[in-house]
Amino acid sequence: MAQQERIRWAAAARPRTVAQRRAADPPAPPAPPAERAGREVYRSVQDSEAFQEIRRGYRSFVFPASAGFLAWYLLFVAAQAFAPELMRHRIAGPLNLAWLLGLGQFVSTFLLTWLYARNARTKRDRAALELRWDTQDQLR
């Protein structure tokens, strides 16, 4: 008896797949016509060339910038772990290479933030705002 109870408990605790949840949940009532129209507008916007161009512009900046920053950070951590003598090399007074590269992490963070904001402002914000206005006009 206790074994069956444990099996039922384990089966209930196991997460259901999406198909199982959809089969178990009652079907949703049909959406009102205005909501269906809104879905169609947003789907058409998502499929539009203007939206895809905005996404391409975003990805073409964010992915390389993120990869470059991650590589720079991992290089700093790896140098600290595997080349401590190199990192102890004095540059000027008490300032050594580790301190210089560590402070460089902060500088590069602020630089990357500024570059991202400038890229968004000059290349994507205006196009995204125009797309938003067009979408709002279609929903009226």
Topology:
Layout: H1 2-13, H2 18-24, H3 33-47, H4 49-82, H5 84-87, E1 90-92, E2 95-96, H6 97-139
Can you characterise this structure?
It is a single chain. It contains six helices and two strands, in the order αααααββα. The chain has about 140 residues and is mainly α. The protein has a two-stranded antiparallel ribbon with strand order 1-2. Helix 3 (about 35-45) crosses helix 6 and helix 4 packs antiparallel against helix 6. It is flat, with a radius of gyration of 27 Å. The chain starts with a helix and ends with a helix. The model has no long low-confidence stretch (mean pLDDT about 85).
Short structural description:
With 140 residues, the protein is mainly alpha-helical.
Strand order of the largest sheet: 1-2
Strand % is: under 5%
Unreliably modeled segments? none
Q: What letter string, H or E per element, gives the SSE order?
A: HHHHHEEH
Oligomer: single chain
Give the rounded overall mean pLDDT.
Answer: 83
Shape: flat
Radius of gyration: 27 Å
- State the share of residues found in helices, binned by percent: over 70%
**Could you tell me the number of beta strands?**
2
Helices and strands: which structural class? mainly alpha
Distance between the termini: 62 Å
Please give the count of helices. 6
* Largest beta-sheet details: 2 strands, antiparallel
